[in-house]
């Protein structure tokens, strides 16, 4: 599984892992039914503690982006499309809070509403496949 971590960044490692798995799902790189590597194996590949990967997997499970395997083997997999999480009030609130903080900073830096809107649209339309590529 290819995941790139910024160990010097402000975003916790488990959140970076979760974000990149979600991006893989959004881009279609991670297809429904795809089994993810065990937390232990991914942690070894990333040279981090397995508890960090467990935390990422648990948050993705709690949000509905991953489901547990039921075929007698342990592991997490991407659920069928119809079981994927939908928009929730919790997500919308979290998104609005994050965008609000960025809008405030952008405004303080002299960014116009049009520039902010264009930046949001550009990111939304961007090729997300770079996050979550080669998740084999």
Automatic annotation (TrEMBL):
CDD domains linked: WHTH_GntR (cd07377)
Keyword DNA-binding among UniProt keywords: yes
Keyword tags: DNA-binding, Transcription, Transcription regulation
UniProt-listed Pfam families: GntR
GO molecular-function term, one example from the UniProt record: DNA-binding transcription factor activity
Segments forming domain HTH gntR-type: 11-81
Top-level taxon: Bacteria
InterPro entries found in the cross-reference section: Tscrpt_reg_HTH_GntR (IPR000524), WH-like_DNA-bd_sf (IPR036388), WH_DNA-bd_sf (IPR036390)
Cross-referenced SUPFAM superfamilies: Winged helix' DNA-binding domain
Protein's UniProt name: GntR family transcriptional regulator
Organism: Paenibacillus sacheonensis
């Amino acid at each position: 599984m290819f995941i790139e971590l910024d160990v010097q960044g402000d975003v916790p490692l488990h959140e970076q892992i979760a974000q990149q798995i979600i991006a893989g799902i959004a881009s279609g790189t991670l297809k429904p039914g795809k089994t993810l590597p065990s937390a232990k194996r991914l942690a070894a590949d990333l040279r981090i503690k397995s508890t960090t990967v467990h935390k990422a997997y648990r948050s993705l499970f709690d949000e509905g982006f991953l489901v547990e395997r039921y075929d007698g083997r342990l592991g997490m997999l991407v659920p069928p499309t119809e079981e994927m999480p939908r928009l929730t009030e919790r997500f919308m609130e979290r998104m609005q809070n994050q965008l609000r903080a960025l809008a405030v900073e952008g405004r303080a830096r002299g960014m116009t509403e049009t520039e902010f809107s264009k930046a949001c649209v550009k990111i939304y339309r961007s090729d997300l496949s770079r996050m979550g590529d080669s998740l084999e």
